[in-house]
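Q: What residues go here?
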C-alpha cells in the first residue's frame, strides 16, 4: 500500500499538547483502525483514525515527528497510508468505553458508529488540562465520567477506580478501551474478573504497518495486522483467549 498525498483542510486545538487534523481524503474504515502518516525525508508514524470521511487524526506532540506535524497548517501536504489494522466491532446495546490520554480519540469514532447503543465513557488524564474528547463524547450521546490523577477534574485517581464499580454493578455487554499499556493491562484484569467481553486497542512501535518488520509484536501477535484491537470473550473461557476479528 503506497502513501497518498493528502492536504490538511482544517486543524483544531484540542488541549495544550494535542491538535486534530482533517484531510481532504475520504476513506471507509472501522473505529480503532489506524493510518501511517509520512513526512518525506523525515519519518512515518502511526495514528488512530478519529474519522474516515473526511480522514481525521488527533495528535499529541510528544517527539520530533509529532512536533513537526503540529507546525503544519491548512494547505500543507502529508502522505497517508491506510486504513490499517483491525478495529473495534460494536457489540451489544450497552457499551463501556474507557480512554486514557490520546486513547479517547478513536473511542469517539466508535461512539458515533455505535448507533442506538447506550454508551458510558470513562476518560482519564493526568490533569484537567490533558483531558481529551470529553465534550465530543458527550455530544456523541455518551454518559461521560472523568478521572484525573491530580484531582483537578472529576474523580481523583485512575480510570480503574471508576470502571471497577461500574463492572461490579453489571449491565454492560462489552468493554472497549484504548490508552497506555498499564491502563489496558489493569482493565483486562478487571474485565476477566467480572467476566465482561473486552476489546482493547494495544499500541506498539510500528514501522511498516504491513506485517513485514516485526517491530509491533505484542503477546506473540503482530499488532499492525492482528490488532491493534484484540478482543476476548470472558463468558466462554477462563484462560487467555484473545481472538482476532475483522
Ligand atoms: C496503532 C497506533 C495508534 C496511535 N495513535 C495515536 C494517536 O491517535 N495520536 C497520537 O498522538 N499518537 C498515536 N500513536 C503514537 C504515535 O505514533 C507515537 O507517539 C509516535 O512515535 C510519535 O512520534 P514522535 O517522533 O513525535 O515521538 P517519538 O520520539 O517517536 O516518541 C516520543 C516518546 O513516546 C514513546 N513512544 C513512541 N511510540 C510509542 C508506542 N507505540 N508505545 C509506547 N511508547 C511510545 C517513545 O519511546 C518516546 O519516549 C499511535 C501509535 C500506534 C502504534
Ligand atoms: S509494524 Fe512492521 S510488522 Fe507490524
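A:
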Amino acid at each position: 500500500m503506497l502513501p497518498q498525498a493528502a492536504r490538511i483542510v482544517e486543524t483544531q486545538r484540542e488541549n495544550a499538547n494535542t491538535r486534530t487534523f482533517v484531510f481532504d481524503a475520504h476513506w471507509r474504515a472501522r473505529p480503532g483502525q489506524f493510518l501511517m502518516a509520512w513526512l518525506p525525508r523525515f519519518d512515518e508514524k502511526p495514528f488512530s483514525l478519529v474519522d474516515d470521511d473526511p480522514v481525521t487524526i488527533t495528535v499529541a506532540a510528544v517527539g520530533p515527528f509529532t512536533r513537526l506535524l503540529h507546525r503544519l497548517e491548512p494547505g500543507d501536504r502529508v502522505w497517508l497510508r491506510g486504513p490499517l489494522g483491525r478495529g473495534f466491532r460494536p457489540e451489544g446495546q450497552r457499551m463501556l468505553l474507557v480512554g486514557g490520554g490520546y486513547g479517547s480519540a478513536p473511542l469517539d469514532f466508535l461512539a458515533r458508529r455505535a448507533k442506538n447503543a447506550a454508551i458510558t465513557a470513562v476518560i482519564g488524564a493526568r490533569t484537567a488540562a490533558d483531558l481529551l474528547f470529553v465534550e465530543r463524547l458527550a455530544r456523541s450521546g455518551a454518559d461521560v465520567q472523568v478521572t484525573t490523577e491530580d484531582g483537578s477534574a472529576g474523580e481523583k485517581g485512575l480510570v480503574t477506580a471508576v470502571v471497577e464499580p461500574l463492572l461490579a454493578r453489571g449491565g454492560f455487554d462489552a468493554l472497549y478501551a484504548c490508552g497506555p499499556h498499564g491502563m489496558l493491562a489493569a482493565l483486562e484484569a478487571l474485565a476477566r474478573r467480572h467476566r465482561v467481553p473486552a476489546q482493547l486497542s494495544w499500541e506498539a512501535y510500528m514501522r511498516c504497518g504491513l506485517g513485514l518488520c516485526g517491530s509491533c509484536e505484542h503477546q506473540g501477535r503482530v499488532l499492525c495486522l492482528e490488532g491493534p484491537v484484540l478482543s476476548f470473550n470472558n463468558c466462554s473461557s477462563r484462560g487467555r483467549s484473545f481472538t482476532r476479528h475483522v
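A: Context that may help when evaluating the design: The helical segments are 64-70, 104-113, 134-139, 159-169, 181-193, 223-226. Residues 235-246 have pLDDT under 50 and may be disordered.
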